Amino acid sequence: MALASAPAPASTRSRLFRSTAFRLTLLYMGVFAVFATAALGYVAWNARRLIEAQIRQTIDAEITGLAEQFRQGGIRRLVLSIEQRARGPGASLYLLMTPFGERLAGNVEQVPPGLLDQGGENEIPFARSGEDYQGARPTIAIVRVYMLPAGFRLLVGRDASERDRMREVVRRAGGIALAVVLTLGILGGFVIARRILKRVDAMSATTLSIMESDLKSRLPVAGNGDELDRLAINLNTMLDRIAVLMGGLRQVSDNIAHDLKTPLTRLRNRADEALRPNAGPEDMRRALEGVTDDADNLIRVFNALLMIARLEAGQARETMAPFDASALASGVAELYEALAEEAGAELSCEIEAGVSLLGSRELIGQALSNMLDNALKYGQPADGSPARVTLSLHRSLDEVIFAVADRGIGIPQEQRAKAVERFGRLDASRSKPGFGLGLSLCNAVARIHGGRLELQDNAPGLKVFLAVPGGADRAG
Amino acid sequence: MILEAMRLLIIEDDSDSAAYLVKAFREEGHVADHAADGLNGYAMAEGGGYDVLVVDRMLPRMDGLSLIRSLREQNDTTPVLILSALGQVDDRVKGLRAGGDDYLPKPYAFSELLARVEVLSRRRAAAASAEPTLYRVADLELDRLARRVTRGAEEIALQPREFRLLEYLMRNAGQVVTRTMLLENVWDYHFDPQTNVIDVHISRLRSKIDKGQAMPLLQTVRGAGYALRAEQR
């Protein structure tokens, strides 16, 4: 049982320890501890220096005073003065020795041997009169030995335990403060890590459910606008985009299945016709010719699909070169003029001369041809009068704009986006031949040139704009 | 006009389509050999004296474009038609830049391939002699310098594009030219205009040169394209 239940909390705990928030807390605490210790140490060191300086100042003042006493009243006055001072509360340490090493006055019983022979400052353990300086915890004093005339030696010192006490206080306070801060910090780190981990876990769980095909769910957003929120919002936007693309893809495959089934069925029926037992050679031939035509049409559709796919993948950019857009536009118009005339339609041109463009001549030509083809096919006015189609080319400040306008029934605003989709045939056009790839190919061509395809109301009719960057300022 | 038999080398790694091509070309009365990879193909092409090479772009051991480049470096000018499954605009440009003479994306109709190979082969034969300034098919004449077209005693007025269309058809008289070939060579467009716009241009031209004539010259070849020729098939 213990074995069975152990892994879960252990893994939760280890996950907590491994969490970025917790690690950051630890790191931060470590850095904080180092700097806090350093700061505290610096403060303590300065305090110690200050205390030592004060002690030294006091000793110097005492020595000056005592030396003055000696100068004024000789050794007797000095002894008196020392004995008087030594009795006061919190007295300094005094020791006066004869040149022969005899103790004359003072409150210090013993000093380390040889100390008095050398002048200057020292730090020594000491004992006041009646104490043994080599006791368990000798007191430390800062002392100074002053050579009086005639070989007398005066030692003045002060108890330095004040300084050591301060150090002790600082050390203890620092230790306690650090311990408290570190404990609280680590606890805080736990809490923060746990909170963040909870949100990240929620995000992971959502991601998992999305991966298990629930593309509709979205990451939780706390609403406080922090990094996790921004991440969640961005991921949600990405998911929305993916959902749209997936929807598009699904629709495309539905449409492919639906729209290709019809010609395939027709092709099959023609083959069946040829296989009928009573079919003569002439019937067979006709049927096979029909099969060939149908197959050619299918190949054409697949080529267009492939081309769109390749354009959307950003290929074919390398074939871009400057070309004469005006010549291309009038050439394509001329190509379609005969067709328009045959269909009883009217094709007119408004083409600005001398417009050159950096791009793929073939692709732009393909797009123009699709636009004209569409206009001639679907641009029949509602009243049955002959179709009137206009191809225009204009140069704006930064764009070259090809436009094909018809006076037909047009496409309602809300259906224009659909018209640009792959296989996005509007119901109104289903009765006419075609596969609904024309405008989406135009769109792909516009996109690969960094331009755009726009459908507008021509009141009545439809006006399709293909705008490609490269206007007057770039012409040349 | 009967074409002489061509000697063709098909360099294609897919054995099914290679076998189909070899058989189809032989049925048309041509001699067709097959190489299954780039290196073999190069070796055979170098000493083979072929009229046209049909080269797949993606080949094992040496890809199609390198093969063509190597041949061209050896000053071998045998016309090459490139077949490609990639079949898009940029590939065509790359193929022609490498030294190919024509380019056909898969899937293609055999009639299209045959027409193009025949034109390539003929063009090579014609390159030896200077391009004639006068084309003649039966009683139809086209004078390239005077830009004049006559049928019998009658002069025919043609638009510039119609003139170029007829010029191309007459240069390749007796041969089948496909719609794509016309679009490429007369209009210099390498895209698919969806509708058969070419048919309309052809029927206009036909009405000018064949109308009221006992012998129509501009013939439709079902499933392939058109041919300008005096005899019926």
Structural notes for this entry:
The complex is a heterodimer of chains A (about 475) and B (about 230). Chain A is α+β, with helices and mostly antiparallel strands and about 475 residues long. Among the domains of chain A are: about 80 residues, Helix Hairpins; about 160 residues, Heat Shock Protein 90, CATH 3.30.565. Chain A contains 10 helices and 13 strands. In chain A, helix 3 packs antiparallel against helix 4, helix 6 runs parallel beside helix 10 and helix 8 runs antiparallel to helix 10. With about 230 residues, chain B is of the alpha/beta class. Chain B is about 40% helix and about 20% strand. The longest helix of chain B is centred in the middle third of the chain and has 19 residues. The termini of chain B are close together. Classes of the chains: A alpha+beta (about 475), B alpha/beta (about 230). The interface between A and B is medium-sized, with 36 and 24 residues.
Write the layout of secondary structure elements.
The complex is a heterodimer of chains A (476) and B (233).
Chain A: H1 2-5, H2 7-18, H3 20-87, E1 93-97, E2 103-106, E3 108-110, E4 120-128, E5 139-147, E6 153-159, H4 161-211, H5 227-275, H6 281-312, E7 321-324, H7 325-342, E8 346-351, E9 356-359, H8 361-378, E10 388-395, E11 399-405, H9 416-420, H10 438-448, E12 452-457, E13 462-469
Parallel strand pairs in A: 8-10
Antiparallel strand pairs in A: 1-2, 1-6, 3-4, 4-5, 5-6, 7-9, 10-11, 11-13, 12-13
Helix pairs in contact in A: 3-4, 5-6, 6-10, 7-8, 8-10
Chain B: E1 7-11, H1 15-27, E2 31-35, H2 38-48, E3 52-56, H3 64-73, E4 80-84, H4 89-97, E5 102-105, H5 110-128, E6 134-137, E7 140-143, E8 148-151, E9 154-156, H6 160-171, E10 176-178, H7 179-186, H8 197-209, E11 218-221, E12 225-228
Parallel strand pairs in B: 1-2, 1-3, 3-4, 4-5
Antiparallel strand pairs in B: 6-7, 7-8, 8-9, 10-12, 11-12
